[in-house]
Design a protein that fits this description.
54% of the residues lie in helices and 16% in strands. By secondary structure, it is α+β, with helices and mostly antiparallel strands. Bound molecules: adenosine-5'-diphosphate and magnesium ion (MG). Residues 160, 163-164, 226 line the site of magnesium ion (MG).
Length: 269
């Protein structure tokens, strides 16, 4: 009986450890969910940007048509042309929704992607917002190189980084804002360098930016979960690394990913 007790004790400690690990995993999952919601909020703002113009066009056409009918000046040819224009705008509106929705679908399996694919999705999402803010987004390097990864997860990380750069550019009122993404490939890894010219992150806080709930923004604008979530996705899920450093222009984030994601090792949140 006495001989058994250390074993029982040990098992209990192992069980406790297991339980604690499960709790941490659950907490991470919840935080990722929370940050997804925060990103969704930001994206709704972007949808609003993209929708403003087509909605104005549809409104103008309908008002003109009503006026023409009231004045007895409507003709069928004009009406058909106008309806065609409305139809195009409606297509555009529904396409935007699809683009944004695809973004939030979880990939169950890794898939083959190139930076060209990723860049065109990012431009669809950020294009209008960046145009309005005169931010020049460029991509350089191995654009056509195919690697295997969870596409939506890496897109979410880019989304976080780009929206942080955009925020910093706005706050600092940068005159000629740019964000440059460079892709290189070495042996079994692919490296992304994301550089902005928003002045960088101050030395006192740069070591804290990947911590959960760390933010320098007001409650309305920041959750402090974007970079935390990005590091969880990159390091725990995609088995890569993510780091940040300052240089004379601004902040540079470096992401390293394995070229081939092993579906057996990765776990999807
Ligand atoms: N490109 C950047 N330029 C300047 N500061 C940045 C940049 N990216 C991140 N930061 C800083 O890191 C903090 C944490 O970012 P994040 O985790 O995305 O949370 P949030 O954007 O909600 O504040 C930001 O509040 C900001 O102070
Ligand atoms: Mg952020």
């Amino acid at each position: 009986m006495n001989n058994n007790s250390p074993l029982i004790q040990q098992l209990t400690i192992e069980e406790q450890l297991h339980e604690a690990q499960n709790k941490i995993l659950l907490l991470e999952k919840m935080m990722i969910e929370q940050s997804r919601l925060a990103i969704m909020g930001e994206m709704i703002g972007m949808i609003a940007h993209q929708w403003r113009q087509p909605i104005t066009i549809i409104g103008m056409i309908t008002n003109n048509t009503i006026l023409d009918i009231q004045l007895g000046e409507s003709n069928q040819e004009q009406l058909l042309a106008d309806m065609d224009l409305i139809d195009k705008q409606v297509h555009y509106l529904s396409r935007t929704i699809d683009d944004f929705r695809n973004f939030f679908r979880q990939n169950k399996l890794p898939q083959s992607v190139t930076m060209r694919d990723l860049s065109s999705e990012l431009l669809t999402i950020f294009g209008k917002t960046f145009d309005n803010n005169h931010i020049v987004l460029t991509f350089n390097g191995e654009m056509e190189f195919e690697f295997t990864t969870y596409k939506n997860e890496i897109l979410q990380v880019f989304l976080n980084l780009l929206s942080n750069s955009k925020d910093a550019i706005e706050v600092k009122e940068v005159e000629k804002p740019f964000i440059n993404i460079v892709i290189t490939k070495i042996v079994n890894s692919i490296i992304f360098e994301i550089q902005d010219n928003a002045g960088g992150i101050s030395d006192e806080i740069i070591n804290h930016i990947f911590e959960p709930y760390f933010t320098t923004k007001s409650e309305k604008n920041g959750t402090g979960l974007g970079l935390y979530m990005s590091s969880i996705i990159i390091e725990k899920h995609l088995f890569g690394t993510i780091t940040a450093k300052n240089n004379d222009q601004g902040t540079q984030f470096t992401i390293t990913l394995p070229i081939n994601q092993d579906p057996k090792r990765a776990h999807v949140y």
